[in-house]
Amino acid sequence: MNNDNAPAVAEICVRLDGLPLAIELAAARAKLLSPQAILVRLEKPLKLLTGGARDLSARQQTLRGAIAWSHDLLDENERRLFRRLAVFVGGCTLEAAEAVCNAGGDLGVDVFDGVASLVDKSLLRQQEASDGEPHFVMLETIREYALERLTESGEEVQNRHAEFFLTFAEQAEIELHGFQQMKWLERLEVENDNLRAALGWLTRRDEAQRALRLAGALADYFWWRRGHITEAQRQFGVLFALPGASQPTAARAKALCGAAWVHSFLDRKAVPLGEESVQLWRELGDKRGLVRATIDLGFILNCFGERAKGRALLEQSAAMSRELGDKWCLAWALRWLGEIALIQGEIIAAGEAAEECLKLCREVGDRLLMAHALLVLGWVMGRQGEPEKYRSLLEESLAIHREFKEGLGIAISLRSLGHLAFRTGDYSAAAELFKASLEAYQQFGFKPWIAWDLFNLGEVARSQGDEVRARSFYNDCLATARASGSDDCLADLLTVLGSVALNSDNAGEARRCYDECMAIRRKLGVKKDIAWTLKLFGDLAHVEGDSEHAIRFYADCLELARGSGDREALARLLEALGNVALDQSDYVKALAFWNEQMTIHRELEAKAGIASSLSNLGFVAHYQGRYEEASSLFQEALTSFRTLGCTPGIARSLLECATVKHAQGDLDKARALSEQSVAMFRRVADVKQVAYGPCVCAGRIGAFLNAPATGPS
CA–CA separation, 500 vs 250, rounded Å? Predict the structure, then answer.
């Protein structure tokens, strides 16, 4: 055994249920077959292990004989039950055994007594499943023998098996929206092998309609929430190609809706699938089916940037849900309406939608949907400057998602906590949280969300002064965002790349980035984002000395930011307005803008933002000749940036402190501080890059250093 074949050897032992004799017989085949080849042939273990030479030892020829001997001791009714139980893959409950093995009442033995007898004779094993129900399982070698006997008998039990698990899945779909959600998710996980077997049998028999019903029932709350995304996509691809699958039935409409959902995070195939589902439900006159499909299509369109159309569909479906009295569908629609409102800068509307969604979830008992409502409400609290409520809601959401083992919800919660850690200056924690989120999305193959976490990791690296790692993350993000059509992420990345170019005196590259960003923003049609992109053009105009246009851009943004309730966006805009006012020597106005910015940063507990505001206020004090006050503010900012480990901020603060020493006539100290600063700026590969301050900060400081010293104030 070696490192190459060790995994195959381990899997062989698992497949043979750890039986010593079976493992010994498999080892005897190793003279001719590699472990990997043996594993492939273990689909029928009994044939592999009991075939071959007749000169094997008597003990090694006894596996089939031992099973046959135990079988022959059964009476005819027990033999009938034994072979019929072989139809189950991974075991069964007593309820399932009764429904499948004695559906016609012809078993001739009580199922409970028969199962107990088979357990006593070691032909069945009793296990306690994760759902708390006793499960009865055959070892694979025994099951293979039982399947041979079932084939010989000519009895048809596969149809009963498929019908039982179709009914089971459709009941589970209903229960998953209520108070028994956890129990039914666990039951589905336990019976996953049986569900696969039932779907496979229906597919091989070209039973398109029943197969579509089964897949449609499993698609959302099981396949999607438990991460069986690739399997779901493959199954739907096969099912829609079956003869009769194109018939305009409720089964097809539901399956189309499910297929659209499992494609929604991966590719645009989701859109035509969702549109066909909505159209078919409408033609069938099924309002409840139409409501659910319309909600999903609204969400899908939002995912791919068609926000106006998506929001209109969600609002329409919410109205229909109220009309039908369907609380769950209304909550589902409100969850996505809340997120879209937040994206579009309508903070109050987002909060109202999330609050109503949360209330409805508690009424119907859907804790998973409640976890998503908590997420949206947390995002709202973050935007409104309530960091403690933000953290509490995110942690509550994460706990529920972990309890239900919902990988995607866990990833979203981790990313959101990463944003909170980043905002509060805990860059190490932010990086770990973003990495964990990235790994989860990579497991599911969700490229648009992978792009976002690459972007987030780039932002952390840039804040830590590691421009090389930041650029690497940004390049990966750029490629992933373009390949996956993640326009939102691409636009945000272009704003960062444009700002980096602007801070490096490359106004042409900055304009190119901002132009592409604006084209994307206009296509997506979110007014808040369009306005914020205008703010970037204001930054560009400001750097190029066109204060008139800069003020015009900023004024439009300020009105929108105040009306939206987005405190983070308002703080960023106030910084830009303060820069313009300072350049125009309007110190009173600059001070007003930056004091308001400081208030917001303190509300948000944004430590890096607070440090940046301290620097800004220090500039005003310096311009007005209040050097002691300026020195105190710059020193406080420096201490904060050092605590955060923010290299660009430290470099900026050192240079700011140097300007004060220069103004006070302490040229040696000024030179020493400025040399330290320049060395740190070189470490971040961009002398003019200042992560948390105005992009012209270095230019202003240069002007101070070039001016004659005025001596102590």
Answer: 54
